[in-house]
Write a structure and sequence with these properties.
mainly alpha
Length: 153
Amino acid sequence: MYKSLVLSQIEYADILYDGLNQTECQYLQHLQNAGLRTALNCDPKTSISELHKMAGIKTLKERHREHVCQYVYRGVHGLSTSKINNMFVALEYVNSRSTRAVVRGDLAVPSYNLSTTRKCFAYGGAVYFNILDNSIHDMPTLNQSKKALKDPG
């Protein structure tokens, strides 16, 4: 019930969470924790990690990163709009030197001078995607990529 009524509303536009400050993100996580306590009828002393384990869901930050990586996967593999597809460029097309990042197949991370612009989707998406294992980058289908993101172990 919680997943369908509350979590779906919180996650509806979670791709935009990169623009939120830490206090706002903590507030959303607090809302999720309160909703889980109510839905699971848990004691206020129940740890947050135990709440998420009982509910079978990840924190909002973890789920946000999964969603961002799914959007980036779509963009890298030409499965999204042209704007998103063109937003993410392999580092090999930007850097002619043969560095580890180029060999690994990392994406070029846009260089921004202001910390506020580092919160944009193009920056965060490239950073999150570059952290992933290459096996996830190279998954042949979006569904396989989603499964690998949800269960990396």
